[in-house]
Amino acid sequence: MTAELGDTRDPSALIPGDVAALYRAISAWRVREQNADEVGAALRTMQAVADWTGEAADAYGTRVGAVASGWSAMAAAFRRGGSALEDVAAAIDAARARAGDAVDLWDRADALDAAAFQEPPATPTGWLGPDRRAFLGSGPRAEARVVLADARAALRDAAQRAAAVLRAAIAVPGLGADEWAALLTGCANPGQVLDALAGADAGSLAALLRARPNLAGILARAEPAAVAPWWAHLDAAQKNALIHAAPAIIGSLGGVAYAARDEANRIWLEDQLADARAALAEAEKPPTYGEIVGGQAAAEAYAERLDRARSRVEGLENIQSSLTPPAGGAPRHLITLTGDSPPLAAISIGDLDTADNITYAVPGMGTTTEGMGNWTRASQNLADLQDQMDPGRAHAVVAWVGYQTPPVPIIEGGFDVMGTAFAERGADNLARDLSALEVLHPGAQVNVVAHSYGTTTSSIALTRDDVHVDSYVTLGSAGLPPEIDSATDLHAEAVFSGQAQDVWAVDPAGGDQWAWTGRLSPLHPVDPVSPGFGSHDFSVAGGAGLEPVTDHGVLTSSGNGYLDTRTESLRNVVLATTGQGDGVSPYVAPGPTPLQKALIEGLTHGRGL
Asked: Pfam families annotated for this entry (predicted)?
């Protein structure tokens, strides 16, 4: 409830309103006005192209002119809206000044009342009437109320006028809800940026993106379904200009051809490496005097900065070295790269633009681009055997380190692997990449092979509405969320699962010492190998001259990881991902290892369970 005279002497309480917030809004509207003006001006500079005449040139000029006029209308709308808000802010200030006058009048009335009976009246009133001194304060009080009421009325009028101006501004033709929502968060929407960039020649594109780098950021929000036809219609010079002017955006933009993304990401990789090495050199300088005497906190900050710098360089260098294929191997393409520390990345073994069969390999806990070489080698094993066992088709395998994985418990950090926060974020990234792939290659067979916590991540992605794959393979699963308790919950034509025997780390018989611990989590307890889940379970125990899996890893020094070259596991994964799933060797539940038997007998005094 608004305060009244006599309750407070504060004009701000008598005239409510956040003037500071209004001025912040005004500032934002002025920035948006300037942005719209600048984009309109930039478009007008591209409206006429030297030495280009004819119907196509006229149509181009008309289209660019119309878009530029739309930006001018937006700028004018923001200008009027900002002015209206300024009027309201000024009206609040004026009303408060008048409220201050009203407070002064009220104080004068109080003073007259207080002094009225301190001294006897100069003329005795007797029986002729009341003492008039009791009414001396009534006049100033009445005047104060009128002053305050007038101030409030003037403010109401100003607010109503401003509201009308704002409504008129929002109603400007061409400014629909999408445009206003985009402008209020950026100054343009992705569709407008795509349209503007498509009409610019190569020289203008480079100049525009240098002058307005925020346009590249808006471009990054464009949907793959809109980007794909836009990119396809650009000429070679335009594409080259975009790749070199905005490599960080083009390199990960869904809908852009993967060869172009590779070219852009390699440019950005070199740029990042130069910056990262310079930052590392700076971080490796001896600590300053303040850091030396700053105690433990300063020492920890210094060590953290140095560790972060080293991690970034190591990740980038590992990505770079992983781009070199083995002798005679398929070319590799850097299809995703981020600026994180360490960065996220995805390397395609084979040509994603032409492949008939595409597999995304999703890693589990503790995998970062600092170990990119290891995950790429595992993916190479998969790609090589796919080529051998399915020679009639072109294959590509994506070594996808596209999310921050949880650290290995105790060894690297806490117990984040028991939760789903990392998996949820990773699922967003994987779903986005799979959706973009579907836009470019709707006819390709698409598979996902996931290991460990990667099964938690990928299973969530495969419940998203716009994601669908032909085959999904889990290896050494750390467990799926409880809401995914059936293979039918996954958007996959076929689901396959391989799981080595659950063992303790000290068991000399070998087996998977980690996966079962992840499934102890109530947040991802579902075992895809369990009866009733509905997966096509396959053996990884070794058979037909192939090696068994005796460790949780994908690659081991003994050659017994889930994706090592001569394992039964790798053979079954290849069959599952090349349309030959009927040929996988069936899973047989293992009996207890000698250590497990001994423990059981010790606990049951030899009577078994």
From this structure: Abhydrolase_8 (PF06259), T7SS_signal (PF21725)
